[in-house]
Amino acid sequence: MSTDALDSDPELDTLYADFEANHLNPLWTQLGDLMPMVPTSKAVPFVWRWSTLYPLAQRAGDLVPVGRGGERRAIALANPGLGGVPYVTPTLWAAIQYLGPKETAPEHRHSQNAFRFVVEGEGVWTVVNGDPVAMCRGDFLLTPGWNFHGHHNETDQPMAWIDGLDIPFVNYTDTGFFEFGADGVTDDSTPDISRSERLWAHPGLRPLVGLDAKTSSPIACYRWKHTDAALAEQLALEDEGFAATVEPGHAAVRYTNPTTGGDVMPTIRAEFHRIRAGSHTRSRRDVGSLVFQVFDGKGRITLGDQEHSVATGDMIVVPSWTTWSVDTDDGIDLFAFSDAPIVERLHFNRTHFPEHA
Amino acid sequence: MSTDALDSDPELDTLYADFEANHLNPLWTQLGDLMPMVPTSKAVPFVWRWSTLYPLAQRAGDLVPVGRGGERRAIALANPGLGGVPYVTPTLWAAIQYLGPKETAPEHRHSQNAFRFVVEGEGVWTVVNGDPVAMCRGDFLLTPGWNFHGHHNETDQPMAWIDGLDIPFVNYTDTGFFEFGADGVTDDSTPDISRSERLWAHPGLRPLVGLDAKTSSPIACYRWKHTDAALAEQLALEDEGFAATVEPGHAAVRYTNPTTGGDVMPTIRAEFHRIRAGSHTRSRRDVGSLVFQVFDGKGRITLGDQEHSVATGDMIVVPSWTTWSVDTDDGIDLFAFSDAPIVERLHFNRTHFPEHA
Amino acid sequence: MSTDALDSDPELDTLYADFEANHLNPLWTQLGDLMPMVPTSKAVPFVWRWSTLYPLAQRAGDLVPVGRGGERRAIALANPGLGGVPYVTPTLWAAIQYLGPKETAPEHRHSQNAFRFVVEGEGVWTVVNGDPVAMCRGDFLLTPGWNFHGHHNETDQPMAWIDGLDIPFVNYTDTGFFEFGADGVTDDSTPDISRSERLWAHPGLRPLVGLDAKTSSPIACYRWKHTDAALAEQLALEDEGFAATVEPGHAAVRYTNPTTGGDVMPTIRAEFHRIRAGSHTRSRRDVGSLVFQVFDGKGRITLGDQEHSVATGDMIVVPSWTTWSVDTDDGIDLFAFSDAPIVERLHFNRTHFPEHA
Amino acid sequence: MSTDALDSDPELDTLYADFEANHLNPLWTQLGDLMPMVPTSKAVPFVWRWSTLYPLAQRAGDLVPVGRGGERRAIALANPGLGGVPYVTPTLWAAIQYLGPKETAPEHRHSQNAFRFVVEGEGVWTVVNGDPVAMCRGDFLLTPGWNFHGHHNETDQPMAWIDGLDIPFVNYTDTGFFEFGADGVTDDSTPDISRSERLWAHPGLRPLVGLDAKTSSPIACYRWKHTDAALAEQLALEDEGFAATVEPGHAAVRYTNPTTGGDVMPTIRAEFHRIRAGSHTRSRRDVGSLVFQVFDGKGRITLGDQEHSVATGDMIVVPSWTTWSVDTDDGIDLFAFSDAPIVERLHFNRTHFPEHA
């Protein structure tokens, strides 16, 4: 079928006009765009530098108040391929959030699932359904859908961290609800660990209250000391000759829901990867989109054909089916999150390991 | 926080310009659009008439050849709210497909999940992985993701039917793969029932080959006689005084995967509803989008504030969180499909029954 | 460690006596019995003849009334290896039940799961929670745990059928509850099919009432015409060159719970096997115990080293890990039930195919 | 139906004799025993004293060597109601195992699931598939079915602990396999924590190797410090006014499989309960059998109508459907294990809270 030939036919022109008038649209003229041979994301691979992000957040801290209405002083990563919408990937939203000394971000809740990851600083507590959760370097915090949450800074220093949400996905699928809560936070105490952790963050143990499988993890915060220890042990076991790492020099943990063993939230996967000095990861590409933040160290990440040097705080987006690998001379720690639970629960997951040249 | 005040600040203007230059985007200026209080779909409620659809399909049959490249003579319903993209809802694609006498639509496969529903006509066989499946009025056919399929018309009459796919969702999430197959169909025989049905379409029985849970239903076609009988029995049981219907006068079945009891495919739910003469359904709204096709009879469907008279073949779209109800003087049969499996597997499902005035 | 040496030691004798006095028991003297190298059932392979069973049931019909207290005129198969207890295997109970003209077996319920299978006759209705279920040759009926049920014979002819329950398992694990119900049956109407079937026995369809996964199948009766058709289709597909049978000449279906795709009840699996004239099954042994009833035809079943000729109505028990195979000159139809769901849900399942000599 | 009347009938006597000769057994004469109204276990409530158990184990240590054949110096609790078989309940086996200075119990594996719980002492390593696991007071160790395991004592002191297995269940259901392994242990190193723990015992984290759901927990040992901390936190949260305990003064954790959130092994549930000084538990009875060992403190346990004073090391058996409660003046710590996974996976579970007098 030659579309050139078709296009010059006046009867056909009338037909196409009639289609349009009746809110119809022929498949045959646009099949390739609608159904490409492999995932062809509009999103592009990109790197945001911490050295850019943090100063801009500071300037926003000076100029923009935080409070009811705007809700959060969060600056979103807008993937350059997505035409200006504030989405880091088609499904994921990622931002740097900044809270000045003694500031409070008021409570609200929404069906969107959210997490925080702290690359530097401390002194803010996120209050989740009345449970204050200290935020410190390396901690991974959850506020799953429809839990009230606010943030307050108890110190004389500002603090910034990374937020990750499924805002684009929820917006696109028309599944979002939002509700305002208290203007302050409902508990301004400042414990070292949350009640949630005291109940749930014991290895392999669960309380006898609430024995069902929960939609999202009941652990409000995954502390750095545990993540760090788990990664260190994997590399130590590798040194001792035992299978423990993903591949030589590459330790990794997944944050999980202890009531199911699965992902922490229905739409977002989170992992932490440690790549030993002098090591590299195997090139791979997966269906679904992925974001890294360098937590520590430095290295090079190859995205498709292009290599980027990255260092602490830098954020890297890997669109669906983009080949990526990391290598490092000095060692690198990477926090990672993705939409893999969406892809896997709907059975679209595939992984491909390109041949090495 | 007054955005008016903020907007007039030159320092702030510079900040916002710097955001944009660095592919960043503040949350506080756009929160309401990104995270509305309830689902606020761009898609609008709409009705397409069979009396419009079918003649346009016929004209396409006369003017547009079917074959490799365009692949299918399918004319998609383009929701008027979605800016011209060929999507009936943000997640779903629906089209009338038309195949002339002796025509063949060549084989291909894709990760998108697809079904066909036949509102009139017969004489086409869909060949799924080499298994010919007759298409007749009232039949519901599956071609789950990554199964090769083609269509061929063995008669001297054209035939049209409805296709439903998750093309928008797959496109949006960058999860699609596509592969061409045979130019003809791999088996041009014309049995009354498919091998798949002979193996799998026996109530409560499964063959001892393939005892695992399958991602999608192995039943290639759900025949009208079974659907009709199931609905008739529900109404008869209601007449006899037993609980069998959804509500008085409203019988309904869900098409299921016999290996799990769940939906036929990971992303698409399909149901059939029969509303008895003089009955109506309770007003409701759900998270997720829904499409009806009138299979038989006529009635009125209320979408939000607006009532539409509908008759055989008409297609009606109900965007997420839109209140709908049906009432009928003479009885109406409705085929329905939706993205409910996506919504439910990711735990965004909610239903609301508005109070009656 | 020589147990001979140990046994002659007086200090040890005292120790063993002290063990006994304190309700203790050393492992080391009895390990082999407690933990054999492979399953070594006390139950033995055995065949009961229909030509024996049926006349004995008739005599019981003449001599023993049926009614409240004894509840059922059921004569249980007592595996000769099990020391006189009325268990066909360690976990399963099987009996021939006999109901004379116009007799009624009163209603009761129990946590034990039960089924009936009809090898000949008709005219009895089993009433399950008030739903009358006709019993005819080849039908497989369920009364899952804690459903009230009674039987009544509406004809002038007696009728006999097979009952299968998990009585031994429930007795052994102390999990049984029992409750008397109505002295008659709560609905003495005699429809051809039950309301349960009218709601649930449509291939791949489920009513929109009760959309959860159910513990046991909601289908009260799996009719012979469906079972027969499914088996006939498998053999026809085999003849046409397609994969449909377990092995050449061996068709088989499993009865399933349409809300899960799994077994009909939590403790009992039921299947139907058809072996074509001139065919045989591959020798195999499985963990778990299995009972066959010949439904039609005749053949030879090999149990361990011994071959038995079997014909319609004969019942054959295959204890755990006993090698079995069937061959037939004229074709044979076999109903089968087992404790496989217990074994599989607790992850003890293994299968072994011995090499052919 | 009067069984007296029936018994005196000579025709009936002949019938019953014919039943017996043909390995058949009438239901109506024994229904009450086979299918009681509520679970009526042959097992009885009973208490074994640590002050009895430990000295007898010591004497066995002096008199009975440990090694290949007898395999383990384990002395099983024989429920007085079960006629001398070495079963603590119909489904569970429990024993005190004793290993002298420098002794080794050789490696083997079996399909039976096993755990160890340490009420006093240390110095033994259990080697599970080559991974040495230190045993210390309060630790709970797993050797799930078909994992090779041996024990070796590296000290000059003997050590005793509790073994729990599903030997009776496996024996009864004919599901057991057994295989001998190395005569010594395959790794005689003595690390403080096992490799399994280094990989898996981090709260809410799992390694990226082996992402499937595992049949049994991959955590070889649940250390006392975690159990103790989890219980202490629950009571502290209760003191602070938050819901964290089962009931006032009663903290409890369940040991879980981190890959599923469910029980550690398919047949055995294990929990730890701490009852605060001056508190008591609510009377309850459950389907399934339960065993406690007092880990610390003392109190009174009421089993049916009888109250028993219990102290450290004492073992208490609660047969199915036996009402029990605990109260304590000084506080008590209780380790508990049961067959609840069997009962729940087969849907026989029920719980009843008797009214307080």
Automatic annotation (TrEMBL), chains A, B, C, D:
What does the UniProt keyword field contain?
A: Dioxygenase, Oxidoreductase
Coiled-coil zones? none
- CDD domains from the UniProt entry: cupin_GDO-like_C, cupin_GDO-like_N
Which GO molecular-function terms appear in the entry? oxidoreductase activity, acting on single donors with incorporation of molecular oxygen, incorporation of two atoms of oxygen
Q: What domain of life does the UniProt record list for this protein's source?
A: Bacteria
Q: Which InterPro entries match?
A: Cupin_2 (IPR013096), GDO-like (IPR047183), RmlC-like_jellyroll (IPR014710), RmlC_Cupin_sf (IPR011051)
A matching Pfam family? Cupin_2
Q: Where is the Cupin type-2 domain?
A: 97-163
What is the name of the protein in this document?
A: Putative gentisate 1,2-dioxygenase
